[in-house]
């Protein structure tokens, strides 16, 4: 494997991190009284939008998995339509999973759904941009020997870290510290974001160190 | 075939755990028995002595000194807070704030005095209130008549005041409401729960205090301020907020004094101190030293007093207040009167003052002696030799007192002589009272760190042993003699020697330490033998199936860490399902990650096809597993509707389903719930029958199958009748009421007896196999069973017959003269042989479930349905995962993976909560003790058993059912998987035989691996439960100074310990049952063999 690919990946990751940072620092310029804890829902929306935008940017500029077929406009529209559908379905799926994990069912539905949107934008939107709305490709990438490029590896790492971060983020909720960030879903979304950022930071290094081991099938 | 050693091994391991628990408990749990006796005005201790004194008709035991008292309790008022040091120019925030006390002491030394007030551990508010009102040393478990509420059952100061016509007005901390329900003449309670709230309680008291005192409609006013304590918890003592709070208290006291009358006693006391971080609960010097300030407008103290007052034990306030206010001293009081307070007489004479004091001490000593004698009759935990010494001292003192009195009456003594002898007598009585208190304290109110450390060490060792056995089990089956026999023998020998030594009084050891010694010796000898004989394979801990370095370990680790946090213990009902569902999702995700869910795609070698693995075929199991996970999540989510609440979560609403049906007043709702519950019961029974039918276990005509067919509906009918009667309205005809009463007693008892009979039947004849002999059968017949040859019985058509042909071949191989004729003539069809073990387990579990449902409130039945469904889903997931990982004849299938055992244990914990329980005493369902025993009990054993069965129902079901974890993967073995393997075989006959899955008969084919597998499973389950118990024990030990130790950690430990005990017993019972079935199955085969030979 060549190192230019890893370098491209690192640049892509820095862009993705900047998206989260952007969502932290730009809204206060536009809105009065913005804080990540106080107006958490606004931040959730903002962050999701930023992350999705950057992912689309990455798709356009880096072309992680260039398809061999020449695609027509109609197939592109079709792909876009299906991507949106997939994204919405994954939001609903995440919502369901979160509720099964113990989130309140009726009260704070909005918070739960926006948290699901955030998780989807961290995981599903990335997958959609890298792999396209291709379920079989997803199944392949998320198994042991399924990764076929550094982009697939980065996808594996970020997705797992995001989900685990969200899981760990629920731990402070029962504690009786009475901190504002213990309120649902702030700690979980912060955990997911930290997991996402940490994995974005670490993934290029991990791939670089293990580059000998990771030999991909030539396409 | 080794069956007995498996059980013995498990029993031995459980006994080690028990001894560890016992040792820890003896060091940690401060136990004492509450006496219900009450002091009465008319029954003074030793009436003959009292009657010799001049008897004032108006007074009770002692002439009254004050007729009113204001008792101000300032929570966590440390002595350092109250004392004033004028020389200190740079005071800390908490120093020199209570100026008024200092001024009063300086200006009126005969009216005011400040003492260090020594609290007894545990220094938590509730225990301290108990101590300062009963005069006893409250421990964590005050074994009284009633656990259900916190109300004080013992004789106490408030009770005595109310009994003797005093009007007691209370304001402040609402803990008192729970302790003394409906005792107060007037009361103003304020919530004490929110530690962050510094002002609500104090401001509330201030609002009512002065009007009440001025109003005069009271005899005793008690005000309990919480601000200082909350301030300590929130900010710590070294904080400006504390200074503000103390200044407020200072102002309160000074203005309160202005409102007091002459004959009113003012007591300002702290109930405990605090550490430098503001916590309390333990026994450090800073926590136990509170302050006591006494003041009255009339002179209270004598002139000649020591400059520096000595510390006063907290219980001493009780007899002093009682005698000053002329109420009887509470029966269980252990305190001594405060000597400074009883130096008074009407004529201000030294001798008569001294006489007053002596008389106070004498009444006090008599009362303590009376209490000690009644207590030692009720319980044996006070050391007998020390009691005897105390008794001697008491009788000699009393004799001396009597003699002195008679001499004084005869005027045979001079004043100075009298003074000396009285002083001496008082000292002797003080000595007696002090010693009595110390003897009690030693056995009631002290942690024993050595016991605690050794107890947890034994638990740790037992866990390690369980782990070692579970990981290295497969190599152990040859060496039970060495591994079990020798350690037990050695340790028994040593223990017998030690007990002989104890008996011959060379040594001084009690039963607990003997037990502990036995356990430790046997553990070490086991480990020594295990190591020296090298039973273990090399690096067995690195095998992929071992627990170390695996995902499930992480979940277990988090789970154990969670037991160290009080918030997590409170929220365990939510945390456990969170872990459970994550663990199982992780397992399924790992399955996918390992590529077990995708069908292998074969690409022709050499051909560079386009992205060969881009479109992997997905197995059906994948979607099925996802469905099962969703079902599990749904079950767990639904079961959270049945949660109960505990005190620590004020926002929580207890589930409405916990209310018994007869308390539901709305008749429509009542009927609706009743019908729903009966439907649930029906669904449970229907599902069980369906399951048995599916595996062909419902065809036989053995008594057990008959029991399932007819007995289960009968039990359900009985239960619904019982519910109907118990939910009926009370206001029916008298005759009908009698009938109802009879039914309420008869129905449950009949069900107990019937279920007991069922259990015996299961143990006696556990086989549910239907044998069909076909005389003229050939090989063809095996095929036609699918089509429905036994079509005469309509129901059999839906039955999937399990044909066990392999048995036939083993039969033949054993028959040396295996003729061809025999092979053709002996085609047997056995229905339900493939699930013979699990069918018995399922029947047992459902029987237990039915009985446990009856012990619960009617409307909890859906919770049990969910419990069963959840267990089924977990087993299904486990079965599918195991079958995807390993081929059916793989030896790994005999080893239950850790994730399954951890999930099972987590499910047990989760269902403890979703059957409406909480690990606190007030949440126990006491009603269950009266199911079938409406009129109460004569003994304590039956209600204890019933309540334990109710509380630990999920532990019982899950641990008895833990064997299913081993059996289920064999049940899930699919014929398709076998067929593929069969195709490889060339011979046709083989294929036909192999077509039928062997299922649980694989277990029978490897009897040695089977028993080892059971042993491994049992030790794994014990290990998981033991690790949880160990973390509870460590949490209780390390956090014994924690604010919440007596509210959260100690009850959690008790419940966990009891739950562990019950779980281990039922694990052993479950395994014993499986082994029993194995025995019977072997006999059955043997009898078939004999039959064939003829």
UniProtKB/TrEMBL annotation, chain A:
Compartment annotation: Endoplasmic reticulum membrane
Keyword flag Cell inner membrane: no
An individual GO BP term: GPI anchor biosynthetic process
A GO CC term assigned to this protein in UniProt: endoplasmic reticulum membrane
Protein name: Phosphatidylinositol-glycan biosynthesis class F protein
Segments passing through the bilayer: 9-29, 41-62, 83-101, 113-133, 154-175, 181-209
Pathway annotation from the record: Glycolipid biosynthesis; glycosylphosphatidylinositol-anchor biosynthesis
Topology versus the membrane: Multi-pass membrane protein
Entry-linked InterPro entries: GPI_biosynthesis_protein_Pig-F
Source organism superkingdom: Eukaryota
Keyword Ribosomal protein: no
Parts forming coiled coils: none
Signal peptide: none
Taxonomic source organism: Pyxicephalus adspersus
Protein keywords: Endoplasmic reticulum, GPI-anchor biosynthesis, Membrane, Transmembrane, Transmembrane helix
Pfam families reported for this sequence: PIG-F
UniProtKB/TrEMBL annotation, chain B:
Keyword line: Endoplasmic reticulum, Glycoprotein, GPI-anchor biosynthesis, Membrane, Transferase, Transmembrane, Transmembrane helix
Keyword RNA-binding included in the entry's annotation: no
Xref: Pfam families: Phosphodiest, PIGO_PIGG
Domain of life: Eukaryota
Gene3D superfamilies: Alkaline Phosphatase, subunit A
Pathway, per record: Glycolipid biosynthesis; glycosylphosphatidylinositol-anchor biosynthesis
GO CC terms, sorted: endoplasmic reticulum membrane
Cell compartment(s), UniProt: Endoplasmic reticulum membrane
Membrane topology: Multi-pass membrane protein
Gene Ontology MF annotations: mannose-ethanolamine phosphotransferase activity
Annotated spans, Disordered: 976-995
Family per record: Belongs to the PIGG/PIGN/PIGO family. PIGO subfamily.
Protein name: GPI ethanolamine phosphate transferase 3, catalytic subunit
